[in-house]
Amino acid sequence: MWIFLLILKWIFIILGILLGLVLLFTALILCVPVRYRAAVDNREKIQYSFKVSWLLSVVAVKKKKDSGQIVFSVFGIPIKRMGNEKTAKKSVAKSEKEKEPEPLQDDKEETGEPVLSAQEEKTEQRKVKKRPFSRTKKAKKKKSKKNFSFQGLSSIMKCVKQNKKPLKRLYREIKELLKYLAPKKVRGTFLFGTGDPSSTGLVTGLISLFPIAYQEGVLVTPDFEEKRLDADFFVKGRMRVIYFLRLFLRLYQDKELKRMWKQIHRLKKEAF
User: How confident is the model at residue 138 (pLDDT cuts 50, 70, 90)?
Assistant: First the structure.
């Protein structure tokens, strides 16, 4: 009997250890942030690099400026490499060779078929293309005319008026999400010029509308004399999975959002 109890004891110990490891791994996934950083430089030619890492770079996806490969690594060991400059060049050369048109006149002369001029071949091709597409276009126009109605437009406007509160909440959640995803550190210089002082001033005014232009470490310099574009940027940030899980639960538990979604789904069925 004591042997059976001893076996049960070890089974429960092993199950407890496995359950603890699962809970620990789940907590790591939810709470440990995913860090990202990226850099862009186009002074001589456009070069970029990025790195997305998790748990002190135990899992990482990165690309260097002087390399065309994206490397996926675990514990610093490369597991998969994506993209290669040599293979890309070979594939482009093969595709260009395949796209080269083959001579057709020789085949027609051998088979005894009448050889047509270039203009006659173009006119025949246009006639063949116009016949099927003209019918389909007419059918599409008829369908679009049938589907569009002022009643459907009024029902959409009514749906928007009835769901102002959930729409405002959805807008607020999207705004908070974008704010959370924004990089925590931005550094760089941006020197630009369009060659025309008036258009350069207009672009400067548009850039000044964005808050990123006023962050510490960002320098935006317009050039009113020459046409140029020099940029050197570095961004760094982080995000946690638990934030997205909480966002999903908040939106899923909202009854007004559910009612709005059902109403939109019903309007789609009525329209189509």
Answer: very low
Question: Please, which residues bridge with residue 40 across strands?
Answer: 48, 233
Please state the φ and ψ torsions of residue 72, each to the nearest 5 degrees: -105, 120
Convert the pLDDT of each residue in 233-268 to its tens digit: 899 999 999 999 999 999 999 888 888 888 888 877
Of 54, 57, 53, 51, give the one whose Cα is nearest residue 28: 54
DSSP labels, the chain: -HHHHHHHHHHHHHHHHHHHHHHHHHHHHHHSPEEEEEEEE-SSS-EEEEEEEETTTTEEEEE-TT---EEEEETTEEEEEE--HHHHHHHHHHHHHHHSPPP-HHHHHHHTPPPPPHHHHHHHHHHHHHHHHHHHHHHHHHHHHHH--HHHHHHHHHHHHHTHHHHHHHHHHHHHHHHHHS-SEEEEEEEEEESSHHHHHHHHHHHTTSGGGGSTTEEEEE-SSSEEEEEEEEEEEEE-HHHHHHHHHHHHH-HHHHHHHHHHHHHHHHH-
pLDDT value for 122: 57
pTM over the 0.85 mark:
no
Integer Cα distance of 89 and 109 in angstroms: 37
Is pLDDT of 205 > 70?
A: yes
Q: How far apart are CA 264 and CA 270, in angstroms?
A: 10
